Amino acid sequence: MPTTPVLLQPHSAGRSLAVLVAACALLWTWWQIPGWYRLGAADEAVLAQLVRLWQQAWLVGGLVTAANAVVLYQATLPLALPSSPGSLLDTRRYVPSLVFWLCVVFHLGSVLGLALVGTGLIHLNPLWL
Q: What is the pTM of this model?
């Protein structure tokens, strides 16, 4: 059977940006859930227990690490590794470069945040309970 060559399409900066925005939205939504519960809760002890359960350091670390892995493999690396050597000579790469650097800032910011939480300089207590 003859096979036809598969032409590799260059990775879309829009797809990478969508992955980055989805990861940030997931992290933000996860962080806000105890605050949304607080709007309807009258029992402060139950709210404090929810915050302690929901925002444990190992859970925050695991979620941020998972988000970093998804952004790395679905957004950062496809933009960093060209689909062909000739695509490096393409001079119209402003948008992919911008999205790539946004992904890098996401990775560095999350590593810095995890390091600050791990060293105890930032406490996981957003509701000040």
A: 0.75
Buried b (16+ CB within 10 A) or exposed e, 82-121: beeeeeeeeeebeebeebbebbeebbeebeeebeebeeee
Determine how many CB atoms are found less than 10 A away from the CB of residue 51. 21
Output phi, psi for 5, to 5 deg. Answer: -70, 140
Looking at this protein, which amino acid is placed at residue 53? L
- pLDDT tens by residue, 22-64: 999 999 988 887 777 766 666 777 777 777 777 777 888 899 9
